[in-house]
Design brief:
Number of strands of chain A: 16
Order of helices and strands of chain B: EEHEEEHEEHHEHEHEEHEHEEEHEHH
Distance between the termini of chain B: 30 Å
Largest sheet of chain B: 7 strands, antiparallel
Largest sheet of chain A: 5 strands, parallel
CATH architecture of the largest domain in chain B: 3-Layer(aba) Sandwich
Structural class of chain B: alpha/beta
Distance between the termini of chain A: 58 Å
Number of domains of chain B: 3
Number of helices of chain A: 17
Bound molecules: flavin-adenine dinucleotide, iron/sulfur cluster, FE2/S2 (inorganic) cluster
Shape of chain B: globular
Number of strands of chain B: 16
Largest interface: A-B, 47 and 49 residues
Strand content of chain B: 25-35%
Strand order of the largest sheet of chain B: 6-1-2-5-4-3-7
Radius of gyration of chain A: 23 Å
Oligomer: heterodimer
Number of helices of chain B: 11
Helix content of chain B: 25-40%
Strand content of chain A: 15-25%
Structural class of chain A: alpha/beta
CATH class of the largest domain in chain B: Alpha Beta
CATH superfamily of the largest domain in chain B: Nucleotide-binding domain of ferredoxin-NADP reductase (FNR) module
Helix content of chain A: 25-40%
Chain lengths: 461, 300
């Protein structure tokens, strides 16, 4: 065994997986996990931990894998994360823990993410659940939104003994984990639901179909229903459009709509009633994780798929692993290309997209080289479907119905980074609702910090 | 139907051939809903999310009244529900309340309002008329449908509206003609004057009412029913062109200034899963025809 090289992980063959919704990556088996775990040199001063937004005791859980005590490994993980099987799959480890791993200096870093996934999957398969709180204090806390931020905050508060209820607008808890990220990257029943069940097993109640700001308000929750503190983890769900002509034509969707139809409503499964117009020739505009997910979904539904992105491959904001997977499966990257207009046929359906080629100029404020249009480079891409994946912003439903809750110009709720406290007493917030669209682990980190903040606040009251 | 479903049907009534009314137990929705808002119902695990305008509510008992026409696959299944059966999901209230609710007393007392209800669109008109009466304002209301059998809620409406005018396309009941001919008759022949029209019905009806009221110089509010998925502003399926802006019907609406709505675009969009082209795309993909129930429940 070459200790400089990580143990490779088995994946579904790209040609096969491009036609199904089963998980791409199989994960490690016991033997592989142990071998990979033994590559960790158990640093005294582990750099990996400093790269983790929730400071998981990484050498700690890895050591228990080597010791063959996976249950102990899981209990270490669940001290820090309520959703380890999710994190192991979707966290950008390459820019966090793994980027800082000592092993990475002269070889491959330890595959922290794949090991985390291994432990969490093993625990689930062996029906190991996180340790329950010892004492309940009966103090009621409301959590808005059952995404990663809300679930984490709720789980942590429940562990401290609080009586927590999550209010979720949709009919399923999970947030982006159920409506956005596709099955082939994050299995819904097996992984997401199971981790949510773990959170419930700590005593957390989840009330679905409650839209805060409409069904009830934060004021009502606090004044009439006896909640002493509220955590807002309502995410950043509002999709952006480009504002180019033709964008309201039939066959133009936001990535959120396309993904929601397929993931939350399970349109790919014929026994479900919600339809999806998958398209034959699809362009996904944008270059983030969401764009990759939409593209790979369209591909699996049988389309030829282009990613249309105005910068070059190095600037693609999506995780490298996702871009790599998308290319392997046959998604075509149309880089340095910007849409100008969506062409519409006489019946109101998309027939193509007028695009222009771009080149990279001087770096702009974000430090990335600014794309500029090449002269006389217009061309037409023939299409029947366009999926807009240009980012999302927080939904104003809550901020507009809660007096005294300050937001910034991007409609993000203003909250203290350390405690999650907002401008309203007793109201805390975190995750995408505060930062704008970010990552699962950052949302979880914010949920964790707010749980501590809420505990401190309620104890001092 | 699974046992843990909690949104129970408390009352079921057949209003006309294939048009049903149901009172559904949903205390959170009943507590905070207003005329103009809607709910999303999902029958079971595999069902679609179906938006339906709120037709009435009882805050004490905790029920919300919905009315639907059984045309699509899902609404036909819904029609089979009896008292005691329950929906898996019932979310709301969604959307904004009717503009009337927040208008000042002063403003309302100066306005003569005409409601124009088309087909199943009579259901969302009803709570607004009722609300007006309960707050001391008299309004007129036209109920239009293809024929007598499709006129619904007439008795209830008469309890609350000062004048109810019935009109049928075939003349089988009331005035003979479409709602526009009825409006013209009221304004031109019967000396009626209106400051505000609220028209709710099939999109094509709302479009033509708006063309007429623009000529007559009467401000008109319409309630839009585009394709929706989440109903919370998350997907953009419900987007509409209103003047020069793009609005999401589920959060910015469903009511809009009818003179600013791009009805042609909205009608095309609402055909997305129903038109031949949409069906063809679906057929090629799925080997079957999918019906989208959304607008069918507002078709005459
Ligand atoms: C397609 C896609 C792919 C992604 N891929 C990755 C990835 O690979 N790795 C990664 O780290 N991140 C990824 N992200 C980003 C990540 O999913 C989010 O940053 C994260 O989910 C944010 O968590 P959250 O809890 O703040 O919000 P969300 O997950 O958005 O959850 C918010 C919840 O609140 C609910 N809600 C909203 N308003 C209300 C209300 N008024 N009342 C009640 N409930 C309400 C919503 O329905 C939702 O369930 C991806 C995002 C998308 C869309
Ligand atoms: S930095 Fe790498 S080698 Fe060191 S403890 Fe962390 S994972 Fe192990
Ligand atoms: S229905 Fe999804 S945004 Fe309106």
């Amino acid at each position: 065994m070459d200790v400089l090289k990580k143990v490779p992980v088995r994946e579904q063959d790209p040609k096969v997986r491009a036609t199904n919704f089963e998980e791409v990556c199989y994960g490690y088996n016991m033997e592989e996990a142990k071998e990979e775990a033994s590559r960790c040199i158990q640093c005294k001063n582990p750099k990996c931990v400093t790269g983790c937004p929730v400071s998981i005791d990484i050498p700690g859980f890895i050591k228990e894998i080597v010791n063959n005590d996976i249950e102990a490994s899981f209990q270490i993980l669940s001290k820090y994360s309520s959703l380890p099987a999710v994190c192991g799959r979707v966290c950008p480890q390459e820019s966090q823990c793994e980027q800082r791993c000592i092993r990475g200096i002269k070889g491959d870093p330890v595959s922290v993410g794949k090991l985390e996934r291994f432990t969490a999957d093993w625990a689930r398969e062996h029906k190991i659940t996180p340790q329950k709180p010892k004492e309940l204090n009966g103090i009621k806390v409301a959590v808005i939104g059952a995404g990663p931020a809300g679930l984490t905050c709720a789980g942590d508060l429940a562990k401290m003994g609080y009586d927590v209820t999550i209010f979720e607008a949709l009919h399923e808890p999970g947030g982006v984990l159920v409506y956005g990220i596709p099955e082939f990257r994050l299995p819904k029943e097996a992984v997401v639901k199971a981790e949510i069940e773990n959170v419930k097993s700590l005593g957390v109640k989840i009330e679905t179909n409650v839209v805060i700001g409409k069904s009830t308000t934060i004021d009502e929750l606090m004044d009439e229903e006896g909640f002493e503190a509220v955590f807002i983890g309502s995410g950043a769900g509002l999709p952006k459009f480009m504002g180019i002509p033709g964008e309201n034509a039939n066959g133009v969707f936001s990535a959120n709509e396309y993904l929601t139809r397929n993931n939350l409503m399970k349109a790919f499964d014929k026994s479900y009633d919600t339809p999806i117009i998958a398209g034959k020739k699809v362009a996904v505009v944008g270059g983030g994780n969401v764009a990759m997910d939409a593209a790979r979904t369209a591909l699996r539904l049988g389309a030829t798929v282009y990613i249309v992105y105005r910068r070059s491959e190095t600037e693609l904001p999506a995780r490298i692993e996702e871009v790599h997977h998308a290319k392997e499966e046959g998604v075509i990257l149309k880089l340095l290309t910007n849409p100008k207009e969506i062409l519409v046929n006489e019946n109101g359906w998309v027939s193509g997209m007028r695009c222009v080629e771009m080149e990279l100029g001087e770096p702009d404020l974000s430090g990335r080289r600014k794309p500029i249009e090449k002269e006389d480079s217009e061309f037409i891409l023939e299409l029947d479907t366009v999926i807009m994946s240009l980012g999302t912003s927080p939904n104003p439903l809550i901020s507009s119905t809660t007096k005294g809750l300050d937001t910034n110009k991007y409609r993000c709720i203003i909250a203290d980074e350390e405690t999650g406290l907002t401008s309203r007493e007793g109201v805390f917030a975190g995750g995408d609702a505060v930062t704008g669209a970010a990552t699962v682990i950052l949302a979880m980190g914010a949920g964790k910090a707010a749980a501590v903040g809420i505990d401190k606040y309620l104890k001092s009251k | 139907m699974a046992e843990n479903y909690i949104y129970t049907v408390m009352k079921k009534e057949s209003l006309a051939n294939s048009i049903y009314l149901m009172d559904v137990k949903a205390p959170r929705v009943a507590k905070n809903c207003y005329p103009g808002q809607f709910v999303i119902v999902k029958m079971d695990e595999k069902g679609e999310r179906i938006p339906l305008t709120i037709c009435d509510y009882d805050r004490e008992v905790g029920t919300v009244t919905i009315v639907f026409q059984a045309i699509g696959t899902s609404t036909k299944l819904m029609a089979q529900y009896e008292v005691g059966d329950a929906f898996r999901d019932f979310t709301g209230p969604l959307g904004c309340k009717s503009e009337l609710i927040d208008m000042s007393m002063d403003e309302l007392s100066k306005k003569k309002i005409l409601f124009v209800a088309g087909g199943v669109g009579t259901a969302p008109v009803y709570p607004q008329v009722k609300w007006m009466k309960e707050n001391g304002y008299n309004v007129d209301c036209i109920i239009g449908a293809r024929n007598k059998e499709l006129i619904i809620l007439e008795d209830r409406m008469k309890e609350y509206a000062e004048n109810v005018y019935i009109t049928t396309d075939d003349g089988s009941y009331g005035f003979k003609g479409n709602v526009n001919e009825c409006i013209k008759d009221l304004v031109h022949n019967q000396g009626k004057h209106y400051d505000l029209v609220i028209a709710i019905g099939p999109m094509i009806m709302m479009k033509f009412v708006c063309i007429l009221t623009k000529e007559l110089g009467i401000k008109t509010i319409v309630s839009m029913n585009p394709v929706m998925v989440d109903g919370t502003g998350m997907c953009g399926a419900c987007r509409l062109s209103i003047g020069n802006e793009v609005k999401f019907a589920c959060v910015d609406g469903p009511e809009f200034d009818g003179h600013l709505v791009n009805f042609d675009e909205a009608m095309k969009r609402s055909q997305m899963y129903k038109s031949e082209e949409g069906k063809k795309v679906l057929r090629e993909k799925e080997g079957a025809t999918h019906h989208h129930i959304l607008c069918e429940c507002h078709e005459k």
